[in-house]
Amino acid sequence: MVLTKDGLESLLKQDQKLNIKIVGMLVVKPPVSLDLFRTVVETAKVHGIIKANNDLIKEISRQ
Fold first, then answer.
1. 45-to-6, 20, 51 alpha-carbon distances in Å
2. Bridge partners of 27?
3. Could you give the maximum distance between any two Cα atoms of the chain, in Å?
4. Which residue of 29, 41, 42, 52 shows the fewest CB atoms closer than 10 Å?
């Protein structure tokens, strides 16, 4: 799964939230901010690889 700033902002405008459960890889492309991620993503469970900036990796690991 790949998350982009445009995709997350689109979900935000539609007042939608994500609950992510992945076996495989999650890629969060720059320039997704930590605030945008926290606003749109309610939960994120990743069993596999996370490719994102260090702040986002820490946030995902805490969930």
1. 22, 6, 14
2. 2, 51
3. 30
4. 42
